[in-house]
Amino acid sequence: MNNIENQRSQFIRPCTRVWLGLLALTSVTYGIGRMELGGTQIVMLVLIITFIKGEMVAGFFMGLRKTSLLWRAIMASWLVIVGGGIAIAYLVGLN
After folding, report:
1. Which of 45, 52, 54, 62 is deepest in the core (most CB within 10 A)?
2. For the whole model, what pTM was predicted?
3. What is the pLDDT of residues 12-27, one digit of tens each?
4. DSSP one-letter code for 36
5. Which residues of 50-83 are buried (b: 16+ CB within 10 A; e: fewer)?
6. Per-residue pLDDT at 3
7. How far apart are CA 95 and CA 44, in angstroms?
């Protein structure tokens, strides 16, 4: 039994888990769009999900999880700046 569990854990590699997580988060944002939900809270939720997805891509598929803190901070800062710019543009557009 233990051998079977070990084989399953080897079958689903970390990058596959991240990819499945990205698919799940993308499905959530797609569902939000299909249900035509709106409002400031929904926009902020979508931006947070986008930030999480960006961190997942940077960490696992760009290989930044194995680099120094500086490179991870640069990527996270870029994601915050772009997401913040979108949030500000949305909030200004409401007024």
Report:
1. 54
2. 0.81
3. 788 899 999 999 999 9
4. T
5. bbebbbbbbbbeeebeeeeeeebeebbeebeeeb
6. 64
7. 17
